[in-house]
Design a protein that fits this description.
The structure holds two protein chains of two kinds. Chain A is mostly beta strands. Chain A is built from four helices and 29 strands. Chain A folds into two domains: 71 residues; 298 residues, TolB, C-terminal domain (Neuraminidase). In chain A, a hairpin with a 4-residue loop joins strand 11 and strand 12. By secondary structure, chain B is an all-beta fold. Helix content of chain B is 1%, strand content 36%. Classes of the chains: A mainly beta, B mainly beta.
């Protein structure tokens, strides 16, 4: 209590000194006049440590300094400015390894194609590649990477079965889908590219209709383009609106047998009003964030929503898998096995792949779960099926690896094969689009957000 | 970007070091890329805006793993709309959320569907506010709206070219307001000039009245697909005084221009060690610079 009164006394002294200072000074560019609200704002402060900001220990000192505001410091000379501008960092936090985000199998050509986020690349490995236990990593057969590629945070990839062409979408920062000839490598310009909505995440092809379907996180939507669309051509179909129950959609899969699509949703969502001019001149471009209704945000549980693949507009899902029994936890990627009638979901932060029946509805438990240290499944963000060889593939963003299992695997099995881009014991910092930072003075830690 | 998270690294970490802890998962209520956060070192809490759920999430400072926030501001009274930035004033117990032509102010302990206690908005404010920071010592609210974000309701990339996506363009600048500014308040000072126009995320060293801002000039990628210059080494950290006013270049630049930063984003400072930390999106890296000159 005495400490509180000490603080208040110091503040009063500061206030008097400030008033004196203001009275004596005349318009120099210094701290503003301090009003009585300063007293109102003072409160006992919790105990903290560290010196850099305002803590219980430093607050009295800092507030006292308001009586004599920080003088306008001299501008440094040119020599110092040049020296500081050229100074190299004393430390660099960076993962040199490739981070596997999404993948697709090309059984025709016996390859796996991986969207990689850390080094902005697309990697192609032989399907049977298996990194030896003592090896540091496996080298890909081909790498597409460089400043001409329009690849940044590529997380979704599709391979055209007839041609082997590779389709890749960037989730963030560059709103382009890029297409390459299957033999492309290096710093290649895409064969063609297509302008897409901001924050596309999942991509899948509907070969029957020669269409590409993409989830759009930002707009809680699925957009469909013709497979041969390019440049600024618009979508041919839009699925968007509150009835769809999409909420931060990520993965998407098509069941060619039933003509249904499956979408995984993380759960955050908002509402928006239709209206305004067509975005980018396309009537079927999703209604954008500028039409959002303030205060309309919601948190929903994660889900899998099911629609006809030709669904358009604001239509309700045919079925919704959602609830505590489902085990969904950041369901990031999804694949369908039409013959088995099963859907496979990669749950990022549960370190699981959960399997459901394609006809499931409501709060249902998975029929199988893959999880555990032997499985090496760690922060899975991509899942794919090889329907020819009946294999399940998982991209593990958290362990520099892709792991391969029999399609009916369950529990904690060792993978049949592993493709690694780093040593198993290295771990992964999972830095991806490091956007903002803060300094935690209490723990002497740097906080970095993706 | 497949995996949002807040990772905590030891300040001296280097290379491919693993984080000491990371906040991620369904319970966190995170959605996509986290564009800003704030650490309240008075109350040991981390604040994160939720871009899709229109919320401000508060976590314990030692949060780790798939944990729920201890408080969340969200609901129809909040007026929150796609919040992508946040600042906290732990001394005076207030949260600041810039969104377009306004800054919403909430009590630090607000939880649930609460209305802002103040809203800075109106023609005299000059906002566009893309990012804000607070100097609790000099009682200042500092707002930046880099030219890429200087359009009402939109930000960056396509937003400026989207016929349905933005309003009239604002004049980019660093605007310095009284911390308690409310309504159609004029800024006390406005820092303009080429560098201030491109200022982005900011932080302050209140004890010395220093503003640190990431400066991102150049091409950020356009609808037409022109990415020439996108990867140029032209980003840097600009250092200004809170007393600067008018067309004032930064007193110091850190990390460039022309050194190594391609797409700088986050900024943090540790005055005790006199370190400046910067993240770069294109390089997927965090750099730590030792710059005593910036703290003198």
């Amino acid at each position: 209590m005495a400490h509180v009164w000490t603080i208040r006394l110091l503040v009063l002294v500061a206030l008097l000194a400030t008033a004196t200072h203001v009275f004596l000074s005349s318009g120099t560019p210094e701290t503003k006049i301090i009003g009585s609200e300063r007293l109102v704002s003072v409160e006992p402060l919790s105990e903290t440590s560290g010196e850099l900001c305002v803590t219980e220990e430093t607050a009295p000192t800092l507030m006292a300094k308001q009586a004599s505001p920080s003088p306008v410091a001299q501008r440094p000379g040119d020599a110092i400015r040049a020296q500081v501008a050229a100074r190299k960092p004393v430390a660099t936090l960076r993962d040199p390894r490739n981070a596997f985000a999404g993948l697709v199998i090309d059984p025709v050509r016996n390859e796996v194609v991986i969207a990689e986020e850390n080094n902005f690349s697309v990697l192609v490995y032989d399907r049977m590649e298996n990194t030896p236990p003592r090896a540091a990593l496996s080298e890909p057969k081909r790498i597409i990477q460089g400043e001409n590629t329009y690849l940044e945070f590529a997380c979704g990839v599709y391979v055209d079965p007839p041609t082997g062409d590779v389709y890749v979408i960037n989730n963030d920062t560059l709103n382009w889908m890029t297409v390459w000839d299957r033999n492309a490598r290096g710093n290649a310009k895409p064969t063609r590219k297509l302008h897409t909505p901001m924050a596309t995440f999942g991509i899948v092809g509907d070969e029957e209709n020669q269409e590409l379907l993409m989830t759009v996180q930002d707009d809680h939507a699925v957009v469909t383009f013709k497979k041969n669309a390019k440049d600024l051509q618009g979508p041919v179909r839009l699925l968007q609106g509150p009835k769809t129950r999409m909420a931060d959609p990520h993965g998407i899969a098509v069941d060619p047998k039933t003509g249904l699509i499956y979408v995984t949703n993380w759960g955050t969502v908002n509402e928006r009003q239709a209206g305004g001019p067509p975005r980018f001149g396309h009537a079927l471009w999703p209604i954008g964030r500028n039409n959002n209704i303030p205060g309309s945000g919601r948190f929903e549980p994660p889900s899998i929503t099911v629609y006809r693949k030709d669904a358009s507009g604001d239509v309700a899902p045919l079925r919704v898998i959602q609830g505590p029994k489902t085990g969904l936890d950041w369901p990031t990627s999804i694949a369908v096995h039409p013959d088995r009638g099963e859907i496979f979901v990669a749950n990022d932060t549960a370190d699981t792949v959960t399997v459901y029946r394609t006809i499931d509805n409501g709060d249902v438990a998975p029929i199988r779960v893959l999880k555990g240290p032997r499985s090496m499944i760690k922060n899975p963000t991509g899942v794919a099926l090889d329907l020819v060889n009946n294999e399940l593939w998982v991209a593990n963003f958290g362990s520099h690896s892709a792991t391969v299992f029999p399609v009916d695997a369950a529990g904690d099995p060792a993978p049949k094969r592993v493709i690694r881009s780093g040593r198993p014991d290295e771990g992964a910092p999972m830095l991806g689009n490091p956007h903002t930072m803060a300094y935690d003075s209490k723990r002497d830690e740097i906080l970095v957000s993706n | 970007m497949a995996h949002p998270q807040i990772a905590a690294f030891a300040r001296l970490a280097n290379g491919g070091a693993k984080p000491a802890r990371a906040i991620a998962g369904q319970n966190t209520l995170f959605s996509r890329t986290i564009h800003d956060m704030a650490y309240d070192n008075v109350h040991d809490e981390i604040l994160v805006p939720s871009f899709y759920a229109f919320a401000i999430l508060t976590f314990r400072g030692d949060a780790n793993g798939n944990v729920a926030p201890v408080r969340k501001i969200f609901g129809p009274h909040t007026r929150l709309k796609n919040p992508q930035a946040v600042a906290v004033d732990g001394v005076h117990g207030e949260i600041f959320v810039p969104q377009g032509n306004q800054v919403l102010v909430f009590p630090r302990e607000a939880d649930g569907d609460v209305a802002p206690i103040r809203v800075v908005e109106g023609p005299d404010t000059g906002l566009g506010a893309g990012r804000v920071t607070v100097d609790p010592v000099h009682n200042l609210l500092i707002a930046a709206n880099a030219s890429g974000e200087a359009r009402e309701g939109g930000f960056g990339g396509d937003a400026g070219r989207d016929a349905g996506g933005g309003g009239r363009r604002r004049v980019a600048a660093i605007r310095i307001f009284d911390r308690t500014a409310n309504g159609n308040a004029k800024p006390l000072r406005v820092i303009t000039g080429k560098a201030a126009d491109d200022a982005w995320l900011m932080t302050t060293y209140p004890e010395k009245g220093v503003i640190f801002a990431v400066v991102r000039p150049g091409n950020t990628g356009g609808l037409e697909g022109d990415i020439s210059g996108r990867y140029a080494l032209d980003d840097y950290v600009g250092v200004w005084s809170i007393f600067d006013n008018g067309d004032v270049p930064p007193r110091l630049t850190i990390g460039g221009p022309g050194l190594l930063l391609k797409d700088a984003r986050g900024i943090a400072v540790d005055p005790k060690s006199k370190d400046v930390m910067v993240s770069d999106k294109t390089l997927n890296a965090v750099f730590r610079f030792h710059v005593p000159e910036a703290f003198n």
